[in-house]
């Protein structure tokens, strides 16, 4: 089955530690995205990538880093510089090109809790 | 810039009641419009979409019509079920150069349906 796989589903971190969230897709999509979801705040864009080896900051990139070395993979690192990292993180992907309508395909999410 | 405004929740209804969740948008271009649904602990799934004015998207008994004159895309369902309880997100995608879209999401509206 084609889709997006995020791991781990739940993650606990001590303050001062970096953690990396995995996102893998087998949909052959060019574009990938990371969103953060907090209660009552909807989805906020952290980073996005439209092509391998290229990515751009979203609205709340501070304290996060990403890489896009392969088309299928877009891992997100939550660094110790992120002041309030406890949240639900969602990875998504989409096609790119002239006839792309902008529909996103989402993973199941990763819930990060800082202890 | 682009923005999406949707009614605040929670919306609480009895089973078989009529549902409306309002969504209005501002966009600089000519966007595509979407409704996504998120069940507890899961990622978002596309519910329906519309790509041009007067298009009606529909799925699972839900409908929404792209109204350019009122910049709206209200979600409706004639008879809700307990299983419709979820958070609903209105979103738009505006094309960038190269055909890659960066979606903008509303804050989400929680729907609770009682038996």
Helix and strand pattern of chain B: EEEEEEEEEEEE
Greatest contact pair? Answer: A-B, 30 and 28 residues
Judged by helices, strands and strand pairing, the structural class of chain A is mainly beta
**Sequence of secondary-structure elements of chain A:** EEEEEEEEEEE
Question: End-to-end distance of chain B, in Å?
Answer: 41 Å
Kindly state the percentage of residues in helix of chain A. under 10%
Radius of gyration from the alpha-carbon trace of chain B, in angstroms: 14 Å
Give the low-confidence spans of chain A: none
Largest sheet of chain B: 6 strands, mixed
- N/C terminus separation of chain A: 35 Å
What does this structure look like?
The complex is a heterodimer of chains A (115) and B (115). Chain A is mainly beta and 115 residues long. Chain A has no helices and eleven strands. In chain A, strand 5 and strand 6 form a beta hairpin. Chain B has 115 residues and is mainly beta. Chain B has no helices and twelve strands. In chain B, the strands form three sheets. In chain B, strands 2, 5, 6, 10, 11 and 12 form a six-stranded mixed beta sheet that branches. The N and C termini of chain B lie far apart (41 Å).
Describe the structure concisely:
Chain A is an all-beta fold.
């Amino acid at each position: 089955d084609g889709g997006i796989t995020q791991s781990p589903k739940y993650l606990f971190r001590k303050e001062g530690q970096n953690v990396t969230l995995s996102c893998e897709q087998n949909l052959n999509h060019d574009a990938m995205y990371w969103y953060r979801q907090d209660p009552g705040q909807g989805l906020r864009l952290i980073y996005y990538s439209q092509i391998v080896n290229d990515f751009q900051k979203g609205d709340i990139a501070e304290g996060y880093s990403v890489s896009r070395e392969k088309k299928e993979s877009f891992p997100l690192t939550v660094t110790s510089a992120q002041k309030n990292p406890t949240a639900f993180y969602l990875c998504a992907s989409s096609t790119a090109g002239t006839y792309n309508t902008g529909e996103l395909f989402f993973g199941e999410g990763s819930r990060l809790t800082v202890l | 810039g682009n923005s999406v405004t949707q009614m605040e929740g929670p919306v609480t209804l009895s089973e078989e009641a009529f549902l409306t969740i309002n969504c209005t948008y501002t966009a600089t271009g000519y966007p595509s419009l979407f409704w996504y649904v998120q069940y507890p602990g899961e990622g978002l799934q596309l519910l329906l979409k519309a790509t041009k004015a007067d298009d009606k998207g529909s799925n699972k008994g839900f409908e929404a019509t792209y109204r350019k004159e009122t910049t709206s895309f209200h979600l409706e369902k004639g008879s809700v079920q307990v299983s419709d309880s979820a958070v609903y997100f209105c979103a738009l995608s505006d094309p960038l150069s190269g055909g890659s879209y960066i979606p903008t999401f509303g804050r989400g509206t929680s729907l609770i349906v009682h038996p």
